[in-house]
Amino acid sequence: MKRLFRFSSGRAGAVRDVKDELRFHIDARAQEFIAQGMSPEEAQRAARRAFGDLSAIEAEVRGNRIAYVERTERRDWLGALTMDIGYALRALRKNPGFTAAVVATLTLGIGATVAVFTIVNGVLLRPFPYKDPSRLAMVWLAGPEDGGGATLPLTTGYFANLNDDASSPVDAAAFRSWTYTGATSGAAEEVRGARVTFKFFDVLGVLPMLGRTFSDTNDAKVAVLSHGFWERRFGGAKDIVGKPVTLSGETFTIIGVMPPGFAFPRGAELPAGFQFAPRTDIWTPLIISEGDRRNFGTMNLSGVARLKPGVQRLQAEATMTARLHELLRTFNTRTQMDYRLITLKDQASTTVRRSLLVLMGAVAFVLLIACANVANLLIGRTASRSREFAVRAALGAGRGRIARQLITENVVLAGTGTILGVLLSVWAVRAMLSLVPSGMPRADDVHVDWRVIALAVGVAFACGVAFALAAALHLRRANIGTTLQHSTGRVAGGRRRIGRRGLVAAEIALSLMLLIGAVQLTLSFIRLERVDPGFDPSNAITASVRMPLPNGFRPILDGPKYQQFYRQLMDRLRQAPGVKAAGGSSVLPLTGQDEWSSVTIVGQTPPPNGRGLRTIYGVVDGDFFGAMGIRVLSGRGFDERDVTDGTPAIVVNRAFAKAYFGAANPIGQQLNPRFEFRADPPARTIIGVVEDAHQAGLGEATTPQVYVPESQLPYPFMNVVVRSAGTDARTLIPALKNAVGAIDPNVAVAQVRELEDLVGTSVARQRFSMSVIVIFAAASLLLAVVGLYGVIALSVRQRKRELGVRMALGANARDVVTLVLREGVWVSAIGVAVGAVGAIALARVLTSMLFEAKPADPAVIAGAAVAVALVSLVATYVPARRAVQVDPTAALRAD
Amino acid sequence: MPGSDIITGTLDILILKAVSWGPEHGYGIGKWIRQNTGDNVIVQEGVLYPALHRLERKGLLLEKWGQSDGGRAAKFYTLSAAGRKHLVAEAKRWTNVARSVTYALGRT
User: Fold this and answer.
1) In Å, how far is B72's CA from the nearest CA of chain A?
2) Do A521 and A599 have their domain in common?
3) What pLDDT, in 10s, does the model give residues A860-893?
4) pLDDT, tens digit, for every residue of A639-695?
5) Would strands A302-307 and A282-285 be described as parallel, antiparallel, or unpaired?
6) In chain A, whose CA is at the least distance from the CA of B46?
7) Contacts of A4 in chain B (CB under 8 A)
8) Of A31, A57, A79, which residue sits at a domain end?
């Protein structure tokens, strides 16, 4: 009997079928012979004889049969899948509101996740385009008292010691930013380059695409181009090697072109103070002379080193430092310095790692909320479709078939959401990166790669499985027979709703945590923007004005030329209409352009470490303090008295005075700076004290700084600042360009911006984190509220009959509203409580991103909790009101 | 004789004809052909099965496992719609050919 219902499926089934079919024939034929009077044995033999070659026929039929069965099954499976998908699409189209809600939620959740992950991947995870990048480290200096995070640049002396002999644990190269002026199509433009020691490309392990790189220390007046610069400027000419290029009046021979993607050093990967451009376009040799090997004063080099095989980073650091201490002893100096090695990856991501990880966390919250919402919508839909499923089951659809149908629907939903989400993420990545103009390391490298695709697919798969599971569990619980007897609307289904309420409570908790984070970041950002930068950013413009240096930087020989140019420029600007003050400086506040050096105070014993007093120094022209709006606190700023052969003068800032003079009056005291160009400079007299201008960032502590007049320390690169007497400083831009062009048309005017932009750019990273988290928090709160509304609305629909009975029995509208409200209030109360506790637990994560704020500020937590609770109440009240509009008789009669 | 084109074609028509009355298993089909052709077409009964399976693959026959008169499970074949059409067309063609051939052979 059981064979009656057999299914022949697969190879084994085919083999068995053929055997049974033939067996039946032989047996039936034998029966016929037995009826004719043969013995059973004889009958069997006769039957086989009549049949012919049984094994040959069986083999033939079996072979054909297997091929046939397998082909049929494949076709059936495809057919069923096509049917399922078609049915799913029809079902989803029939319910456009539901479909739109699910797809939109998924698109948002997946789009945000993929976008944030794309950025995290590009900045933190993707390997550098150098050979074996984990063996590369940046080399910095740090004094014993400088704390763990200090990274001082190298001097030529400190660098030369690194590579002195074969026993060094590293191969090192040094480089510094160098901006050239090049003329294309008439106008002078800046070319951002780097001067690098000859082993630079070998240390990074990158080969040129064309030509060669620097081969030995004798290479001079040669240049290597970046791929981008080669294409832009030379149209990608294949025969470029050997051609000349003129930069800042110097002529270089092009010896090579680097492959695309290579742009080391890239500004955002290194501390801002080194003034590297986002991408380096040209590399020229940095030659270290015998004299440079003894220079332990001017720190202006960055170092990169490759650890030799088998050497660990910390071990190399210790060995190098020990060798350095020995060397310093032979020089009989009391200077104490250690080397510090920081891996390229840490170097590139230290500034943003934390905020990116917080973003990842925030987006994970959004995704969780989105998934919870979709799961909720699906459970609700399954519940309202239970009758449909019951009917289909009664008509013979197996439970497996219905489950498969549900899974197909969910996969179609998740798939659509993923595709739209990935499209959204492409746009979102662009939008997010535009919020951080240049502050994000490796931002130019951010793009979708296999990790991102894998994440998107993984998320979609996880969502699909989770939804299918939720729906299937629900289906398993719903008893089909019961559903048909008591149709929807009669049973309250209390147990069933617990899952949905839990999901909504979790959504509320997550969104409250995000909201608290967003509020704290916003408050912190407002506080940060309120910090007095130490100068007046309104009504002034700034531009980089750099002189070409045909023979290199020769301050002693060419100094008078630099001085004459800037003196003329300042005179012209001062006399231009609408100008209140004009000046210039080698370093600008909030740009991180800081040249560190040290000074000693005349008549004071230098501190025991022998390094002098560390300070940033700036070379200034014209009325720099007036143009910047930096207040002079005591003494005076520079003026016409500070001529080239006048008394050597210096101005210090408040932080310098406080750190090195304490309560004493610094004015009239004398300093010996290390950054002088002349061999035996006279001491400089302090003529004034000015307000601190924030150098590294508004949130950072101010640092000691000194200013010297360019008239007494010639310098060819100035950030010119022009303050307007009227309101719109931008009207002065043509005047500035004309003034420069009239004096020397070969001088480039670049990076023209308002002083206010300096402030804006310096907080761009904080603004980025804040904006993104605020958007995430708003989106998640919206999702959570929609989720809560959905749960309560469905609950009201399912309890329509119960509520109708209650009202028919005399309950008034208020009782019913209270009844429904109670459910919503419980859900949101639990969510808010869990969210508040979670926010306190996670407070530590945000600490480093906050400026002058308590991480778990009770006022913020309480305020956000109340706000979320109120919004939840509204989301509950609307469907609750609808409950009392139920007509009791209609509700009772409804099926 | 099995393998000769005329006989193969003949066997196919006879099988289709055999199941045209209703579902029948392989043994029953063979028996019907034997009884109605006087053992002239089928010499060895085994040749029936490759033919049955071939017709099923072509979609002319449908299969269904059922119970034989003796109470055993057996594979029953029925005519599909295509099979019935095929039978009608082939029977007509066969009759024409047979008549022509008979006529030709009858000429003396």
Assistant:
1) 8
2) no
3) 899 999 998 898 888 888 888 877 776 666 666 6
4) 989 988 889 999 999 999 998 898 889 999 999 888 887 777 889 999 999 999 998
5) unpaired
6) A51
7) 65-67, 73
8) A79
**Is A42's Cβ below 8 Å from some Cβ in B?**
no
Q: Does the CB of B27 have a partner CB in chain A at under 8 Å?
A: yes
CA-CA-CA-CA dihedral for A46, A49, A51, A56, to nearest 10: 140
Which residue, of A58, A79, A100, is where some domain finishes? Answer: A79
Report the half-sphere exposure of A699 (CA within 13 A, side-chain side): 17
Residue A267 pLDDT class (50, 70, 90 cuts): low
Q: What is the pLDDT of residues A128-162, one digit of tens each?
A: 778 888 888 888 888 765 555 566 788 888 888 77
Q: Cβ–Cβ of A50/B45 closer than 8 Å? A: yes
Whether residues A554 and A499 fall in one domain: no
Q: Which residue of A has its CA nearest to B52?
A: A61
Does A202 reach chain B within 8 Å, measured CB to CB?
no
Domain count, chain A: 4
Residues from chain B contacting residue A32 (CB–CB below 8 Å)? 31
Rounded Cα distance, B91 and B99, in Å: 12
Q: Is residue A427 part of a domain?
A: yes
Burial of A192 (0-12, 13-18, 19+ CB in 10 A): buried
Nearest to B26 among A4, A25, A60 (CB): A25
pLDDT band, residue A750 (cuts 50/70/90):
confident
The verdict on a CB contact (< 8 Å) between B27 and A17 is no
The chain A residue lying nearest B27, using CA atoms, is A25
One domain for residues A247 and A373:
no
Determine the residue of chain A that is closest to B51 in CA distance: A61
Residue B95 sits in which domain range? Answer: 5-106
* A633 & A693 share domain: yes
Q: Quick one: what percent of chain A has pLDDT higher than 90?
A: 18
A108, part of any domain:
no
Q: A803 with A890: CB under 8 angstroms? A: no
Q: Which two tokens stand for residue A441?
A: 């390391």
Query: Considering only CB atoms, which chain A residues are within 8 Å of B23?
Result: none
CB of A314 within 8 Å of a chain B CB? The answer is no
In this complex, do A25 and B54 lie within 8 Å of one another by their Cβ atoms?
A: no
| Domain-located, residue A128 | no
Strands B24-25 and A613-622: unpaired
Query: Do A239 and A151 sit in the same domain of this protein?
Result: yes
Look at chain B and report how many structural domains it folds into.
Answer: 1
CA pair distance A295, A675, nearest whole angstrom: 11
Looking at the fold, whether A480 and A589 belong to one and the same domain comes out as no
- Residues in A closer than 8 angstroms to B34, CB to CB, are none
Q: Looking at the whole model, is its pTM more than 0.80?
A: no
CA dihedral A623, A628, A634, A639 (to 10 degrees): 0
3-state secondary structure of A331: coil
A327 with A385, same domain: the answer is no
B25 vs A3, A4, A24: nearest CB: A24
Which of B52, B75, B76 has the highest number of chain A CBs within 10 A, making it the mutation to test binding with A?
Answer: B75
Instruction: Tell me the per-residue pLDDT of A308-366, one tens digit each, with 9 for 90 and over.
Output: 888 888 888 888 888 888 887 776 666 677 888 888 877 766 666 777 778 888 888 88
- Confidence (pLDDT) at B3: 39
Angle between helices A813-847 and A858-884 (to 10 degrees): 150
What confidence score (pLDDT) does residue A3 get? 41
Average pLDDT (A363-383) is 81
**Which class for B22: exposed (0-12), middle (13-18), buried (19 or more C-beta within 10 A)?**
exposed
CB-based contact B66 A25, cutoff 8 Å = no
- Any CB–CB contact under 8 A between B15 and chain A? no
Is A500 in CB contact (< 8 Å) with chain B?
Answer: no
A650 and A799 housed in the same domain: no
Decide if A346 is inside a domain: no
CATH number of B73's domain? 1.10.10.10
Q: Which residues of A611-623 are buried (b: 16+ CB within 10 A; e: fewer)?
A: bbbbbbbbbbbbb
Which structural domain range is residue A563 located in? 549-745
For chain A, percent of residues with pLDDT exceeding 70:
85
| Closest CB to B26 among A21, A31, A60 | A21
